[in-house]
Each structure stands twice: as C-alpha cells, then as structure tokens.
Amino acid sequence: MRSSLIKLPHSVIVKSSGLLPMHYTVHELAKEIDAVERTLRDWLSNSAPHLKDATGRIWIHGREFADWVNRVKKPGSKQKAMKENEGYCMHCRSHVEMLATSTRHIRGKLTMTSGTCSQCGRIIHRGGRTPTNSAPSQQGVPNHSHE
Ligand SMILES: [Zn+2]
User: Fold this and answer.
1) 89 C-alpha to center of ligand 1: Å?
2) What is the pLDDT of residue 145?
3) 127: CA distance to ligand 1 center in Å?
4) Complete domains list, the chain, with CATH
C-alpha cells in the first residue's frame, strides 16, 4: 500500500466532485474524470474504493470515489492540524510552540500569525485561514473588518 504516492491530476480532483451517487464502470468513470483508464485501475488496485460483481466487472461509486479523492489529494493531510500557538520553526526544523503570538489579517480569509520560537527565540511566521464557520474566539487580534 503506497497510497500516499498517488498523484491526482488537478482535473481529476475537480471533476470527481461532480460525480453522481451511482456506480460507474472503470471506462465510464475514466471518461467522467478525464483520467486514463489504466491510471484509474492503478488507483483502484491501490486504495480507491470499488467493488467487483460476480462477472468480475468493476464498479466504482461516484460519491465514494469523490470522498477517496478528497482523502488522497493532499499529500500532507496526514499531518495533524497544528494548534493555534504552534508553528514550524525553520531553524529548529520542527513544530514548536510559538510565544508572544500575534495574528493579523492579510486579505480575504488569509491570516498571518507571528511569534517567537519557544526553543531558539527566532521569529516564526505562520500563514493561516480564518475558519468559515467558527465563533470569533481570537483574543487581542486587531480585526479591521470594516468591509
Ligand atoms: Zn526555533
């Protein structure tokens, strides 16, 4: 199982979200998501969800496949989400606690959190995203939202 090595073309990621909750044959699915049939079979033999009927024909459920694409598309997705006060220190080459953090709003939903590394004291910047549906719980964050 080397599912982490699967590279999904961007078009597949985009098109799989439009798959229907029905079963596709390999041929049909390959056409739907603009993939090469052989590549698709590789994914199926790797970790993509599918089922085989009595005649050996392979069926892929559109929504299950889309879910699988969502799980696979980010190679870094097995990383745990960092806590609010954690960042990656380039100097220590590891995730460290950030001290004296401050978050500022960049544009749209993008934010930048700055703080100092708890281990070496260097400044760490960490890009972030404002969660779409969470209660505003940032303390002491200058939030100039006059838009
Ligand atoms: Zn450090």
Assistant:
1) 5
2) 53
3) 17
4) 3-78 (1.10.10), 86-129 (no CATH)
